[in-house]
Amino acid sequence: MKNTHYNSSNSIFFKRLLLVAIMALASCNSNEKTEAANTAETETTEDTDMITITENQFSAGNMEVGKVTMQPFNTIVKANGMFAVPPENQADVSAYFAGYVKNISLLPGDPVKKGQTLFTIENPEYVQVQQDFLEAKGRLNYLKSDYERQKELIADNVTSKKNFLKAESEYTVTLAQFQSLKKRLSLMNINPNTLSGENIRSVISVPSPLTGYATTINATKGMYLNPSDVAVTVTNTDDLHIELKIFEKDLPMVKEGQFINVRLQNDMNKVYQGKVHLVNKAINAQDRTVAIHGDLVNESDVKLFAPGMYIEGEILTTTSEHPALPVEAVANIDNDYFVLVKENGTTFKRVLVKVGATNNGFIQIINANDFKGDSEFLTKGAFNLITE
């Protein structure tokens, strides 16, 4: 009996011991799996920042490697404005004399030459001006001869002073009328030297005062024009220049000779180069701005634009050097900026960087000191790899 009880107790003890051993083993295996899982998770997390490129991918993608270099960066003054022409390059053409438009065949944008007829205008009163001129011209010859004769006679005391003064007065008055009518004929584009009774006309032509383009046409055939009415606007675009406005606080930084980056408002990616030509010395009291005039550096660019086109400008003022990488080397992901740093061979690590200004295809790297001096970066082809 005692023996049986001992065997039973012993069996229960071994069973409990076996159960504890199994539980301990299971716990150990569980910890190992958890640690392995954590290790795998860490390796996976680290691997997301590592990118390996094959040599074929590197050459096929025309990728390039480079280092951080010191590049010049400009402090800029932003301004808005437009393209314009000097006052002498634009003319509002009107007829100096009232009349009806006889003929006009211009369209906006038509090129015109200086002296070319823009339109013709008709009025019977033009005939009277020509008639008065020819009559004054005929009387003048006689009055001049009579005045010179009376002048000689008064010198010899042969005639009275009254006759001399009368001849002098008539000659002087007629001469003034003749000169006045001659000037009016010139304004009417009628040559007074060739005018005669046979070529008097009621239609006169209005010429272009300069070479350029007919940019505005206000007159139409049959319209009655007053002397003050602008019929045609002619613009010469050869001297097209940049007109910008800056705020008065920026005036001390802007000087003649500084370069300007010019962009059209409908195409901000294309940049044209200009240079400050003139800085106005007066401040506009209404909006507290200062006018800046500039010229395009490339004269061939002038043909691409027209007066009145709105532009945005960046005036490049002071210059300083900063560590930088090519713009292609940096990728913007939700306003975070990343680069690919070479680890070994063709393996690169994605690293967060702080960036500053951009200029001439380079972007400033503010935390450049976080990298070793000999660190190499993927400078071409990095964007697609970072954002994938």
Automatic annotation (TrEMBL):
Keyword entries, A-Z: Signal, Transport
Pfam families tied to this protein: Beta-barrel_RND_2 (PF25954)
Keyword Ubl conjugation: no
Signal sequence residues: 1-26
GO molecular function: transmembrane transporter activity
Gene Ontology CC entries for this record: cell envelope; membrane
The protein's name in its UniProt record: Membrane fusion protein, cobalt-zinc-cadmium efflux system
Organism encoding this protein: Maribacter ulvicola
